[in-house]
Design goal:
Elements (H helix, E strand, L loop, with lengths): L21 H9 L2 E5 L5 E5 L2 H9 L34 H12 L4 H25 L2 E3 H6 L1 H11 L6 H11 L7 H24 L5 H7 L10 H32 L1 H9 L4 H11 L7 E4 L4 E3 L2 E3 L4 E4 L1 H5 L33 H18 L4 E2 L21 E3 L1
Parallel strand pairs: 2-7
Antiparallel strand pairs: 1-2, 3-9, 4-7, 5-6, 8-9
Amino acid sequence: MSDTQQAPHYPFPAPSALDAPAEWAELRSGCPVAPITLASGDQALLLTRYDDVKQLLSDPRFTHHLVAEDAANITTNESGGVFGSGGGTNVKGDSHREWRKLIGKAFTAKRVSAMQPGIEAEAGRLVDEMLKQGSSADLTGALGFPLPVWVICELLGVPESDRDKFAYWSDTLLSLTKYTQEEVDAAQAEFAAYMSAHVAAKREEPGDDLISELISLVGALDGRVTEEVMLMTAKGLLVAGHETTANMIGKMVAMLLADRTRWERLVADRTLIRTAVEECLRYDANFGFGIPRYISEDVKVADTTLPKGTTVVCSLSAANRDESAFEGAAGMDLTRSPNPHLIFGAGPYACLGQSLARTELQTVLKVLLDRLPTLELAVPADELKRREGLIVGGLQQVPVRW
């Protein structure tokens, strides 16, 4: 690329809220390691092929904490949000993996399955509220966001009455371009103060919740799990635990209703719920930014040597549309199995809460199919609008009627 040709700005604009940018297919076939310009103005490289993305995500040497001096700044604010100094912990390398194992024990299958009846009951209660309001609603506002907030509040032992604050704090931590530096700093200071007070209260009166469990781990790994690390982890779980799932509920329902034969098929056959959820996760073209990796030593990817000091962005959604990994990747197949999509990442840093997210998505889909079998989009699918300026993808609203 010559100096006169600036690397394209990333993320790429999409033709509509549910469609993939044309650039993904072009880059997969012609330029699998592509230079891009980030919102900050910094340069990085973009990976769009399944094998390349999986290779880099699975490599334990590289993390998404972009705190090195020569790492690209992802966002327009200095703290770098979830990928910069604002979202990292001081536990690195082997210690970081050990810490993740400790936290991972909190997301046991037993704990997640124990939460399922409560999730179903809460989803049913939210649908009751929708029905009381009439025959139409914004599914995102009525169900998509309140349900995962309730779940994460239950998990962390946080009062649900504070959920509006969480939504704002999460948005600022996930901001690419949406908020000013002053707004981000103020919100993060509030968030930190809130979590410190909450942790202090839980220390006085521990409960059967994740925060109480995290408090008990302070001092672990030969003292490397500090109070600060524990607080950062609690904040990270709060943000990751509701925002991505909340967005996915709206996108999943929109995808299934965009071609209503998909919805009708599920109404007729509930055994497809699990594979349909996995296919929605794979097919989602509006996942958001992707996962960055800081290359701390030279590594070869797709016949290209990525030099030490490079920041690479792994596009999970582009990788999930790779025809070499998924037959008929450009279309939805609600029966696709196996479905080794990468939306939860791969390797040692894969999403800790993926079993909980799957449980929420499968449960909410079952409740909607049972309670609102006549559900349909209230606007054409191409009129749906994306949430803009955030690291995570989502839809502003999903207007539905029944």
